[in-house]
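Marked as duplicate of an earlier ticket. Keeping the data here for the record.
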Amino acid sequence: MNPRQRRQRGQSLVEFCFVLPILLVMFMGVYTAGSFISDMDVAGQATRAGARLGAEVANYGYGTAAAQSAACMGGSTTNPCAVDQDIVTSTMTIAKGLTNVTSFDEIDIYNPCSSAGVCTNSTRLCSDPTNISGNYVAGVDPVDVYKLSGGVWTLQGTAGYTLDTRTQNHPNELAIGVRLVFHFQAAAPFSFFNVQAAQYETMCFAPYESGG
């Protein structure tokens, strides 16, 4: 190998050393983005399962004696604890499939009725899809907020979306929304990328026809 060939080979190695870190960073960036998209998709499936169950169960037979049978309800017909517990369980059964999560922060079960910053009787109805904004609006949408406490999903404060307000009488049925809040953390060397993310899903209650 002559001196010129040795210089060319050395130059190629130097260039490769410069390019390799850039390629690795680009590869890990693409991998991190893919992981985040994948986890958001799983979170979307989880909230969809919870909202679907909530839409089917609706108001848990509000106003009937059977609705008081759940122990957590304490004989109340408006306490949504039994329904909410099933929704949380359904949501978390799928959410456990998230692969880059450091914490599950919150599950919100809410009435997606906010329109221009307020909830009114007209914006609550599912008969017109434009009424349902979908995304949870804190301080406006009636909500039951659940957070982990000692490994158990626990209602924070009092229930805001009680059974008596979960109307399913056609054509005035309302909607239910489920939002999952979690922390996503990328794998090394991008572990510094730690962001709180959220996914939600809303569905109309299964209509109930009164009469014979």
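See parent ticket for discussion. The first helix runs from residue 3 to 57.
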